[in-house]
Design a protein that fits this description.
Blueprint: H1 5-40, H2 44-63, H3 69-88
Length: 89
């Protein structure tokens, strides 16, 4: 346990920050799963409607520093390409 007042405060802040980061990460993953599930079900229209929500969640996680911006770009790119292929077919 922390011995100093400042160390206790940093610990409280760390716990709050971790909870926020996990919330953004979990939200992002949930939206990505929804798009992937629609793609697995060969439902291009459902994937197209869920894609903007997924992109927004991914961008938000990147802006908060939860994931790297290049990782966010990769996720967005791959989901968009897969959705475009599914809706074109």
């Amino acid at each position: 346990m922390a011995n100093h007042k400042q160390a206790e405060k940093r610990n409280r802040q760390r716990i709050k920050r971790r909870a926020q980061n996990l919330m953004h990460l979990s939200t992002m993953r949930t939206y990505m799963k929804r798009v992937r599930k629609a793609l697995e079900g060969e439902d291009g229209e459902a994937a197209k409607t869920t894609l903007p929500d997924a992109i927004q969640a991914i961008s938000k996680a990147a802006s908060k520093g939860v994931i790297h911006r290049n990782t966010a770009s990769r996720y967005i790119s791959r989901l968009t390409i897969a959705t475009n292929k599914a809706s074109a077919a």
